[in-house]
Design a protein that fits this description.
The protein is mainly beta and 241 residues long. The chain is built from four helices and 13 strands. Helix 1 runs antiparallel to helix 2. The chain is globular, with a radius of gyration of 17 Å.
């Protein structure tokens, strides 16, 4: 049985990671001043709500995990929404998100084209499939929201250390600003070209997933999880403009 670990992330952690470039912010100094006044909570992550290990023929077992994240809603003083820290997934790791309550915007970038961004809104019940080895970041600009995600060990990649997985490669040099309810990609550092933005959701079409994602790691058979991994790795169901 999985042992759920709850961890809250405050604005101060976002600022500290921005100093190491694993997070990009539009106006770090302004947010730092706000943090000195009130170090507000951004989200609480409940890690390992579900966990499964699935054996594979001629390969190491795959560990599947399910997390639930509760986001505060609203905008920070710079116009950036309440957000996750964001990170790059390892090669071969499957990850799917579903909004359980509220609505969010998820930013996704691929390692071979970090300036080509997917920025799409996902409402309650909708899923986002993160391409293999991609960067992803969740924003909650409107109201409190709850997001559940499943992810795999990638067949041999060890289970993640949640305290260290965000300290890797620098984030893509963009963040989002919201004005009049619309998201705009803002360059957080100087880049040769502005970002190319797709606003088509990265859907789960073609993947055998339940209507409510949290039930997958509880009810699916080992064979179904192996088939999901095979489908995802050979033909990821990602719609792009």
């Amino acid at each position: 049985m999985a042992v759920t670990v709850a961890r809250s992330v405050l604005l101060s952690e976002l600022l500290s990671r921005a100093a190491g470039r694993t997070v990009h912010l539009v106006d770090r100094e302004r947010l730092a001043a706000e943090c000195r006044r009130s170090d507000q909570p951004l989200y609480t992550a409940y890690r390992d709500v579900h966990r499964r290990q699935v054996t594979n023929v001629a390969n190491p077992p795959t560990t599947w995990r399910g997390d639930r994240v509760h986001y505060a809603g609203g905008l920070l003083p710079t116009g950036e929404p309440v957000r996750s820290v964001g990170h790059w997934n390892p090669p071969g790791q499957i990850e799917v998100f579903q909004v359980l309550a509220g609505r969010v915007v998820i930013l996704v970038a691929r390692p071979d084209e970090p300036d080509h961004l997917s920025i799409a809104e996902y409402r309650e019940g909708e899923m986002c499939v993160v391409p293999l080895n991609a960067f992803h970041l969740t924003y909650s600009p409107w109201q409190d929201s709850v997001v559940y995600n499943i992810y795999s060990s990638g067949g041999g990649w060890p289970p993640p250390d949640h305290t260290r997985k965000y300290d890797g490669e620098a984030a893509p040099p963009h963040t989002l600003i919201f004005t009049a309810g619309q998201a705009r990609a803002e360059q957080a550092t100087v880049t040769p070209e502005p970002a190319q933005v797709d606003r088509v959701p990265l859907t789960a079409d073609g993947l055998d997933l339940p209507a409510r994602l949290p039930s997958l790691l509880v009810d699916a058979s080992d064979e179904q999880l192996r088939e999901l991994a095979a489908t995802f790795n050979t033909a990821p169901a990602v719609d792009r403009a």
